């Protein structure tokens, strides 16, 4: 029988060993235990045999930041796999995060089945694009290398950008920007962040990038974030990257699934732009908190929803969801309220919640009836751009 508990300082090497074997990495202990991640381990006696952690994010949905647990580094020693260790450990971590007031969770699944059992469903995209660097429009580049004092302005620039999208996450802990979000050692070479100065102390745009091999064709400039808040900032950043044309073969960036303004600004012919899509999974941890925490289009209406959440039955409801001009309140449905024909499984509800699944998708999957009177209100509430995020964690 394994015991689940937060690790002690002495467990750093054990945690590093489990992670290194699972992800075929070198075992590194620095930062393993005492940064801002919430970490739980499973122990066989004193030995660490399974690990998982949660990163505190705000996830942008409808212009609001919803408290989000980013689950990562889920790993079990091979001898202990297939016995429910991961399932028990992640369940416990999610329960703790829910008790802490965290409303939603997101993760990149190596194994979707494991997470579906825990109530997750595919809920957004991690799009990447590559294009020939010679297709980037030349322009005068008003760009400077980021200084230490620029970090708050960079974070503010990202928040303004992310507020117009569904799905992007940003760490609540400022220190994670330097260790994880912005290009850092361990990914590619020559990690750098450059900024386009904005009015006053503000920053109008920034790009955080590294260089990586593009095989026979030389190297590629890979942007982790390429964020422009004004037309001038977009032109400057693109003009800056165009100056790599004598060495680099390609530019790569993560942006909305359409390719966004960067894709539209390039002179790229049809198949020369190569898109690549990974999907992340999402899970609503606390139904009323999540519904009241995100933003919506200016919709008014009322629906009763009932959820089936075996892990957190407190989510089941039924809930009365009232929208008034896009402001949503959630209360337990009065006993007399007519109940929907069938409860929504928490996973598909989570996919609807981020706007990744449409009500039409849920009808075809049998989770909503084709004549359900709630379809129009649900569809209007969760309408919006396809959810995506630039970050991988
Ligand atoms: C993925 C991993 C964490 C699973 O750990 P585990 O303890 O073996 O998983 P569990 O026994 O708790 O399995 C939970 C559920 O997921 C399913 N599952 C687990 N691994 C699976 C696999 N490789 N393929 C399909 N389903 C799988 C199990 O069938 C089980 O479902 P069930 O309860 O209906 O039987 C483990 O295999 C591992 O460490 N892999 C290497 C690292 C990795 O890929 N981590 C994932 C990062 S997101």
What's the count of strands?
A: 18
CATH topology title of the largest domain: Aminopeptidase
> Helical proportion?
25-40%
CATH secondary-structure class of the largest domain:
Alpha Beta
Percentage of residues in strands: 25-35%
**Superfamily (CATH H level) name of the largest domain:** Gcn5-related N-acetyltransferase (GNAT)
Descriptive notes:
The protein is of the alpha+beta class. It folds into 3 domains: 3-119, 3-Layer(aba) Sandwich (Aminopeptidase); 127-279, Gcn5-related N-acetyltransferase (GNAT) (Aminopeptidase, 3-Layer(aba) Sandwich), CATH 3.40.630; 286-381, Nonspecific Lipid-transfer Protein, Chain A (2-Layer Sandwich), CATH 3.30.1050.10. The chain has helices at 12-23, 85-99, 112-117, 151-162, 175-181, 231-242, 260-265, 287-293, 346-354, 359-364, 375-381, and strands at 3-5, 38-44, 47-61, 64-76, 104-107, 121-132, 144-145, 169-171, 189-197, 203-213, 219-228, 248-253, 274-284, 301-305, 307-308, 319-324, 327-332, 344-345. Strands 1, 2, 3, 4, 5, 6, 7, 8, 9, 10, 11, 12 and 13 form a 13-stranded mixed beta sheet that branches. Strand 11, helix 6 and strand 12 form a beta-alpha-beta unit.
